[in-house]
Hints:
Layout: H1 2-33, H2 54-74, H3 79-109, H4 120-123, E1 130-133, E2 137-140, E3 145-150, H5 152-155, H6 157-160, E4 175-180, E5 197-200, H7 216-223, E6 228-230, H8 238-249, E7 256-262, H9 266-279, H10 283-290, H11 302-314, E8 332-335, E9 338-341, H12 349-352, H13 356-362, H14 377-394, E10 397-403, H15 406-410, H16 412-415, H17 420-427, H18 445-455, H19 458-469, E11 473-476, H20 478-486, H21 501-517
Parallel strand pairs: 5-6, 5-7, 7-10, 10-11
Antiparallel strand pairs: 1-2, 3-4, 8-9
Amino acid sequence: xxxxSAEGHKAGPLRRWLLIIAAAALVLAAILLSHRLKPGEAxxxxxxxxxxxxxxxxxxxxxxxxxxxxxxxxxxxxxxxMARRLKRLVAFCASAVLCVVALDLxxxxxxxxxxxxxxxxALWPVGEYSVPDSELGFRTKPNLRVNFRFQPSRFGDILTTxxxxxxxxxxxxxxxxxxxxxxxxxxxxxxxxxxDMLAVGDSYTCHTNVPRDKYWPSLVxxxxxxxxxxxxxxxxxxxxxxxxxRKYGMPKKPRVAxxxxxxxxxxxxxxxxxxxxxxGTDWGTFTLRRMHLxxxxxxNRPVIRLAMFLAWKSGxxxxxxxxxxxxxxPHKLRIGGAERPIVFNRWGFRILCCSREQLQRDLQRKxxxxxxxxxxxxxxxxxxxxxxxxxxxxxxxxIVVYLPATLAVxxxxxxxxxxxxxxxxxxxxxxxxxxxKEDGSEITPDEFIAMLKKNHNAIEEExxxxxxxxxxxxxxxxxxxxASLHAGEWPYYSYDTHLNVRGNEVVADTVCKYxxxxxQAPPASP
Length: 526
């Protein structure tokens, strides 16, 4: 009895300290758990579990676990037993922390492991296959060789951006494709010293989802028996294309410069590029901020991202904001005797709703920078005028190749079949200020459809007038692409916003017909 009492007496101070620490841990956990949140009170990307974000729930769970473990340890009869259990607890916690740190480091050093649960822009703000550039924002990595298989029914950008959850089989074949760049980061096996023809543009000019020899500039060069330097870069916009043209293209003295203009996002990205140049930051930082991916610690750590992803997938957590609506069914359209699923890009509706009056008003931002919305038409036209001057001075023939967005080609064949309410909900997020009428009220689904029917070709008409007034040659590919569609040869992928192989062939054929009919640049209009 005397020995047991002595051991209990020795264990007393340590037991009291353990109980005090356990009680403090419970108090801290209670403080954290006293702040429940409603869905609208937390960022969209921060999952809620029973009304708590991971900032509160994970530390609270760790504190409760520690309190219970310390309480159980304090029940030991002797100081020695208590010390042994405490050492085991410390060793367990240290091992757990080391494992978490090791996993975090592995995921950090091998970012591709994070692709299933992290936005690509968060892993590679300038692009997975790109490097920063002080003038262009980013360039494709030089001397790159990447072979891959593109599966349209699995990896189209409509699917990878989660715009549809139940895609129907499209019957499209897989494509063996390649990313191949030269020392300057452009689509070539080597930097040429001179060439007959160059092409600038974005992914519609140099798209990795078709074979390299099927890009429309490659097909044009082959038909015209001309050497080609394809300077198209996915993600570029007219101001970037102007810089690339001047810096990398013009010194090699081409005879013809083909400028691929994509209706779908060239204006939006031109406005963003102008914002970047004024921001004073690097392209990666600008991208993270623009996409709201510049998340604070601990949300920027891979293990926390993984925990959040698993919480979402398991159903234990929900987004702080409701998910975006799926593309409305039915997905299939029958046009030209062919029936296939087709999904139109959520992020493209805004520019397709812009009227010619809004585009013309955007030009006034040169005198009044505060004019909203900032559409990017000003930056686009200024870039084309500068390109025209540079090409005229060097004796180069500049030809704008107008490349329409998918819906502009499908036109009323698709718009008339939309469920007005559902497509309005689907597109609504990106319409922003276009949703407001002059009296401040929001447009209705019927007004949205009317706006879409009226304006989906407004940029095409405005570009025609602009080029005509400024002596710039333009090839409009819309009629030929519509003819292909109505002949049953669909020129676009079902679940990707880009031209398929047939679409590239149609564009190339249209450009070649123009070049053969106009072997010399027509005289400038007075």
